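Obj: model holo form, ligand = protoporphyrin IX containing FE.
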Amino acid sequence: METHFLQFPSISTLLGLVGILLALFIILPGFNRQRKEPPGPRRLFLFGNLLQLNPKSLESTLRDKHGPVFTFHFGPQKVVVLAGCKMIKQALINRNAFSVKAKSAIIEDLKLNHGIAFANGESWKEMRSFAMSSLKGKEKWEEKIIEESQYLIDVMQEKDGNQSLACWIFHAVCNVISSLVYGKRFEYDDPVYKSMVARTTRNTYLMGSTSIQVMQFYSRNLLWAPKYRTKQKLFTDKNKVPVHNTQHVRLISKCILLTDNIILIALKASGTTNSHYHEDNLLLTVVNLFTAGTDTTSSTLRYALLLMAKYPKIQDRVQGELSRVVGGRQVRLQDRKNLPYTDAVIHEIQRMASTVPSVLRCASRDVTFQEYFIKKGTPVLVWLSSALEDEDEWEQPHTFNPAHFLDKDGNFRKREAFLPFSAGARVCAGESLARMELLLFFTSLLQHFRFTPPPGVSKDELDLTQVGGFTQSPLPHELCAISSQGETLVN
Ligand code: HEM
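Output (holo structure tokens):
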């Protein structure tokens, strides 16, 4: 036996070995190519690429250098970033591999992974289609928004002196959702309502804050840090957070969503079973509609008025079109088709506002996207604002120019890269409602007021910078709202 091992290998064995080596030589690089990971900037120990965390560098520098699919390290956490219209559409619409929300320690810690926005799987599907059916009915919503815009105009005309337009707009938009969630609107100075609105704003801000988002990438244990606990208390303070409190939602017994579900629960008792209609899911669906539907729409409206004050000629043209086509009467949804300039301005406002700059998903399975391998579970950041500013798509990506949405004859034209509501299976569930609100609130405000910079400030000094976390909104600012009844300074 020993001698057998010491024997010189035969020619055929040698040829066989060479053949295997050659095959490996040919196959392996191809295999590696298939598993090539997206490129990205060099990372630092512990910090990853956090020091480069600046939207401008993500978008221009990194995208220019590494292409539209690249890797970015939030501390130790690797995230694949998708940028540019073509890449985003391909990922969200053509490929179904990125429709799962990424796991988040904070969301799990606060038990917010029920409902719609942070949920996945069958439960998400069920709650989403339930919410979508509750959001149906254009005529119903048109009436509610028109009624609420009248309240908004009245309160703005009644008040004297310095007042918070930001607050009134937020209240008005909240009331539209309240009519669905609670079955009624609230007076703007109702103390319960005021606290509910204040907490919704603060919670959305806290959830998206960089410190909280970054903290979770390091270690779940950091979420036990005293500072975070204090923040967490704000979400769960049962007596003070009405929309996060089952008891309160029950007390406001006209809550249509829950009433509908009580019917569904009765159906279940009678044999029509649906395991997803449990209390956590229903409550979080209410919370999601309330939070996703208010901050976004009201921030966009505030940005709209700021842009009008900064670009008075565009404001003139909108007001001119409104008075020519609609006159003094209330704008209705069916007027949209006869208001191409106004419609183009609203779209351009949304493009510039980029209210939801990105969404965080994850690869639901091992996937090769473009030429890159993305492992199952890898967080994928879909950089929506990169589509809204894509230099390959827009003539003047960084300039407020309503002509982006007009053809040469002045008709409204759709644009492929207009993705403020995202796309694909998880596209914004409230897109249709949001579009109605933007049209009706914006035109009502412009029919009654002219917006200008405050005294002593030139239009060039108005700052268009957007700030925030999950959602962006303009920096605090003042404007003058001038109506036939006088002039008011608003902020
Ligand atoms: C200008 C206003 C709005 C903007 C820009 C906006 C944008 C978005 C975006 C970008 C997403 C993420 C989609 C994704 O993950 O790919 C989203 C999700 C969502 N939005 Fe909106 N939204 C607006 C208004 C509304 C309104 C008025 C409602 C409801 C009343 C609403 C309800 C939702 C819900 C429930 C989701 C989660 C959808 C899911 O995960 O399946 N949004 N929105």
